[in-house]
Every structure is written in structure tokens, then in C-alpha cells.
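User
Take a look at the entry that follows and flag anything odd:
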Amino acid sequence: MKIRRYLTLLACLTTPFISTAGSKHPERPFLKSELIFPLEHWHNHGSSIVECPNGDLLVCWYNGSGERTADDVAVFGARQRKGDRQWSRPFVMTDTPGYPDTNPAMFIDPQKRLWLIWSTILDNHWESALLKYRISSGYQKSGPPCWDSGDVLHVTPGTNFQALVNAALDALVANPPPAMKRDEFDAWIKKDRARLPDKLSCRLGWMTRVHPFVLAGQRLIVPLYSDGFDFCLMAITDDWGKFWFTSDPLVSIANSQPSLIRKQDGTLVAYMRDDGPPPQRVPTSESRDRGVTWSPVVDSDRVDTGAGVEIIALRSGRWLLINNDLEEGRHRLAVTLSDDEGKTWKWKRYLERDSEADVKAGAGSYHYPSIIQAKDGTLHASYSYHQKQSDVKRDAAGKPANESIKHAHFSEAWIMEGD
């Protein structure tokens, strides 16, 4: 099955651009978008996008017959050469035979090396995720990167981890969320307390989602989350992977997948996915010591459906947040701008937005976005694209061909123009 899937991917042709007001200048409003490969029945999810020093775009994602429960899942990639309008045929970035490889994240470090960080799932449960990384200097040619080195990223929470988590859980018990049923809340607290004394439970299960964060060109912070604990942690290195240590945990009711941004005064802010009780809002936390300790997690005013978010600082000084701005569903994907470091969000536009009729008939799903600002100032996003039910076609085997990864290229001016 895996060989057949790979041959199918090699045979794929990229789809044409869908364009509005096509300009490459960031000061002009434009949007161009396309599927990186044709819709197929294989599960395609969790993408990450980077711009290479030579101007190429590189996207990776995980692909297979499922997620953590399918042992044929591998990390695939595709490249768009600078100036081209099409993507290459997908290629394998990394594959651990017999294990699911999931949740890849990429970035390019100050030495212009490409990093790929991902999780190999050991026993088909997210709690068994083993974090790995690879580094490449030879990644700007056609095909997959040539990896120079790689290792397991051992996540070893500090000696005060158990005490910090218990203290945070005590604070939650003293002020439980009113919208959460008491028996569900008690079970959540009990689950985390039961995991804490087990060393293996504390060291496995940590996963990436968004781009790692390079602080002042020296410190690398890899935002992590655990589906076992349902909260977040940062893996930190000051010597590019020779030695890793962890931050204090960011604990609340089911926050995950943190994305980092830096204020002008040096404060780091984590914006997270909300998997907790309603109202669904993007949780936030702040660090004033370069990512080591974090303030209590609080809800922002940003609506979130319980799917991935990412936030980046633009060269204009504005902040950009991309997420599903819904209480329920993933059929809208919004990009929102702030010019006051997240106090207010004055501009919003939708990369995807199904109509009410589409929602009633079976909405699509456009989620897990990854976003960057390119050297020319324009914006590139990649995201999981699951077609709305009314448009789904079947492949030669009779299976619904409805999943791909989509790329969108647009400008700040396009967002500020509004819908």
C-alpha cells in the first residue's frame, strides 16, 4: 500500500493557480492560491512552509492512510522553484518504516541550515510520541533535502516540573471553569495528577506544530504540547541542539500547539489552540525571561474552534494571526492584523469561507495553517485542505478524493482591503 501511494504521488501534476488581482508587490492587494498536489483519498495534514535562501518555497506535511493509528504515515515534501507557478511532485522527507511520522515543523537557522522536527508515534497513541530532528545544508536542489545529521530531541522536564504542574492544577481546582461539567473537570485533573509521577509519561508525548522560534539569533525555542497532559512546554537550546533544557509548563484546561511572538520590549507571548470548554478563545501566556518561565494562561478575545493557530510579527510592525475564527467547525480560515501588539485586531480577511448552504450540505475543512513572510514582504501560507462534501469526486478505486495541502500567496494590503 505504501509503494502504491508513493507511486501515485509521483504521478501527480500540480493544479493551476486560482488568482485575484495578481501582483507580486506587497503594497498592492493580491491573492493567489493553489493545491500543491491534486485531491486524493490519502490523509494529508499538518503542513509547514519555509522560504529557502535562494527564494524557493519548501512545504512538508504528513501523509498516509490515517494519523497515529496508521503505520504507513510518512512526512512528505514539495518544492516551488523561485519564479515557477507549479509545485514539484511530492517526495519523502522522512519515514520511519512501520511507524507513523507526524506533525512536522521546519525552519531555517541563522547558519542557513534547514531543520525538520517531527514526532514518531511508537504505539499508535499520541502519548507515545518520540520527538526527532534532522538538519540539512543541502536542501536547495531538486528533490528531498540531503540530511547532514539528526537525533532524538529528548524532552526532560526540570526537577520542579511535578511541583509546578500540581500547583497549577490546585489553582484550577480553586477556580474551575463554569462551562465544564464537574465530572469531566475532575477526570481531567485526576488524569494529569496520575501521569506526573511516571517519568516515561513526562518525557514522551511532546509534539511540535508551528515554526520553532529563534530569539535574537542565538536561542532556539521549540514550542511543544502534549495530548497526554493537554498543556504546553518549550524545549530550549543555546548551542543549536548540543544541549536542550525545558521551560516551566504552561498549564490550563486543554491548551496546546503554542506559537510564539516577541513584543518590542522583549516579552515573549504564546498564542495557543483552545481544546477546553466554551467559550472557545485563543489562550495566551507571557514570558519575560527569554522563554523559561511563563505567566498563568488566560483567554484572549480571539475566537478559536480548537484547531491550530500561528502568529508572526511582520516587518511593518503589525502582528498577523491565522486561525479558524469559529466556535465550531473549520470551514473558515481567517488572517487578522493588529498594529498594537495584539491589544486590538483591526483588519481581517478570509482565505477560505464556506457559505451557510455549504455548511448545511457538508462544509469543508481548512485548518492547521503555517505562515511566513518572504524576503519580498509578501505572505505565504500552507494549510490542510479537505474539500466540502458537495464537490467531492471519487478516484479510480472509488474512494473519495478530497484531501490535499493548499498554498496561498498574498499581501498585507490584501488583508487590509477587507472582504
In short: Confidence is low (pLDDT under 50) at residues 1-23. Residues 161-174 form the longest helix (14 residues). Helices lie at 2-10, 161-174, 182-195, 199-203, 356-362, 412-417. DSSP finds six helices and 28 strands in the chain.
